[in-house]
Amino acid sequence: MEYQKNELKNEVKLRKRSRIFAKKQSVSVKEATVSPRITTN
């Protein structure tokens, strides 16, 4: 029982982390497309 609970927690953690990571990536891509001057300087 305990083992399964921990597995579930880890799964949730991983999903949250990957979702945050994807959000960060899309934000950085948006920033890059919106303001190319900053990235080139």
Provide a quick synopsis of the model.
The protein is mainly alpha-helical and 41 residues long. It has 2 helices and no strands.
Low-confidence stretches: none
Give the SSE string.
HH
Q: Which structural class matches the secondary elements?
A: mainly alpha
What is the terminal separation in angstroms? 55 Å
By DSSP, the count of extended strands is 0
| Rg estimate, integer Å | 17 Å
Strand fraction equals under 5%
What does this structure look like?
The chain is 93% helix and 0% strand. The protein contains 2 helices and no strands. The model has no long low-confidence stretch (mean pLDDT 80).
Compile the SSE list and pairings.
Blueprint: H1 2-34, H2 36-40
Give short descriptive properties of this protein.
single chain
